[in-house]
Write a structure and sequence with these properties.
- By secondary structure, the chain is of the alpha+beta class.
- The chain is built from eight helices and five strands.
- Strands 1, 2, 3, 4 and 5 form a five-stranded antiparallel beta sheet that branches.
- α1 crosses α2 and α1 packs antiparallel against α8.
Length: about 160
């Protein structure tokens, strides 16, 4: 099986409602560029600016196809009832992600971030691009095995 076919199958299996454009995948694989976000499109991934996540970021995430078509609406409102961040130095990822993942877990879904690889080191962006994938059947492991060839990893 060609790499682009294997990656297309893994993406379609892992991301609810996603249909891969094999031409876009072939371009991504051929150029070894890091544009998985372009292949997925705004319908399946969203960039997050954590400092504004509770206003527009959560709305943008809720508009992605895997959440919208499953009728899921994520919320972080309860976080502000229980524990406001103490200061600006607190890591926003650590503040928001556990609650988001907990809401997705009963639906066998999880959020992952598109990261790049620098050798064996995972490099996350300041403003991450999040993708909602299935948390079953080794989906993440299969995707990462294929994405590593283009210098990407989902974390």
């Amino acid at each position: 099986m060609k790499t682009e076919d294997a990656l297309a199958q893994a993406l379609e299996t892992s991301i609810p409602f996603f249909k891969a454009n094999r031409e876009d995948l072939a371009k991504m694989l051929g150029m070894r560029s890091q544009n998985l976000d372009e292949v997925l499109g705004d319908e399946f991934c969203t960039y997050v600016e954590w400092k504004e996540f509770d206003s527009w970021g959560i709305a943008s995430l809720n508009e992605t196809v895997p959440l919208a078509k499953n009728g899921l609406i994520l919320s972080v409102d309860e976080l502000y009832d229980d524990a406001m961040p103490e200061n600006d130095d607190e890591e926003p990822y650590e503040f928001f992600m556990p609650m988001l993942q907990a809401q997705l877990a009963p639906h066998k879904l999880q959020l992952v971030e598109i990261c790049s690889l620098d050798g064996s080191a995972i490099v996350a962006a300041e403003n991450p691009c999040l993708v909602c994938i299935r948390s079953t059947d080794g989906c993440l492991e299969k995707l990462n095995a294929l994405l590593q060839h283009v210098g990407l990893i989902l974390a």
